[in-house]
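Quick one - inputs below.
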Amino acid sequence: MTATANAVNVLSAEKLLDHWQGHRRLTRRMIEAFPEDKLFSFSVGGMRPFSEFVMEFLKMAEPIAKGVATGQWVNREDLGTPKTKAELLRLWDQDTVAINALWPTIPAHRFAEVDKAFGQWEGTGINTILYAIDNEIHHRGQGYAYLRALGIEPPQFYDRS
Amino acid sequence: MTATANAVNVLSAEKLLDHWQGHRRLTRRMIEAFPEDKLFSFSVGGMRPFSEFVMEFLKMAEPIAKGVATGQWVNREDLGTPKTKAELLRLWDQDTVAINALWPTIPAHRFAEVDKAFGQWEGTGINTILYAIDNEIHHRGQGYAYLRALGIEPPQFYDRS
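Output:
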């Protein structure tokens, strides 16, 4: 008999970072795929434009990596939406580097430890990180619907390179 | 100094199943939220109706749990789309039970082992499972755009109960 699954660990921190950054690379291609004006204005069904989803991701990703690493939750609520795609991509790339730098400083116990993210959302480090990733996939999926409604072929979902 | 993160395991098989079934419960609420006719017909930008996304999830989830557990990849390509929401929900609930039953039979080594899912997609067990979850979040996000376009308030994304 081989060991059964329930107690086994299935994901290392290193692979989780790869997984997250793979999704962030796809989101970056989505930002690039939007025509500049539509990025900041177009939506379906009264939802926010894709630029505002991206701002939400920026307010979660690096601050969550930092919060899980340090226990300090930095609120970026006053981070204004840039006026150009280039500036949005610059913020994106800046956080890609920052998350990679923060990652190996996360103390091992913090993934399982319960904390209150941004002083509000109680959860383990791993659950808070998974929430950030899932939220990005979720709103990015809505962005795919925006691009389709605009007649634009979105990037391939399975390509995380 | 506490241990840093890269090598640490961050997710157990048991928690991954909780996470997946939480997402599947949200997707179930999405199926319920669609008016019956719109579930099988409505879309944005020429995409598939939400029922077809659900069929895709059904063709991936339980077969992937089984494939990772056993190495046998059962193709459900000929599973036709039901004609009613009730039947779609019945298939959904059937697989919820089946996935829960399969899960503890997954041999521990299979999460890290590379296999060719459905004879086509090479990846570790964990990556194949994460792909199924991410794909569900992605297309469900598109379903949120459909509901918004229909003027229907979708279920809360954060509620996985």
